[in-house]
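Hey L., structure's done. Input below.
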Amino acid sequence: MPEWSAPAVDWNDVEESPGQVKVTTLHWRCSETDGEFTASSYGTTPDDQNRVYTKPALEAVPESVLIGWIMQSLGDAEVARIDQALLDDIAQQQNPTR
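Output:
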């Protein structure tokens, strides 16, 4: 099963609320390893949930929560497509058809 991570979060200051930031973009990486074969994909997805935090509170959000936000934003079908693409890449590396 591919492994998901959340390497970065982009945010903007909330002008009307000093000290507050609004999440704008979630960065993600999905990777799979099978022995000596590896595959990975990196992307971003917009966060349209209007999440507002103080910067220290946002930095304290656990990665597991960020991954949940990413998967919610991408949707089940896109998450499944990304996972399958990595598994297909590994299979191609293990059994090249060229």
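The mean pLDDT is 95. The two ends are 26 Å apart (CA to CA).

-- N.
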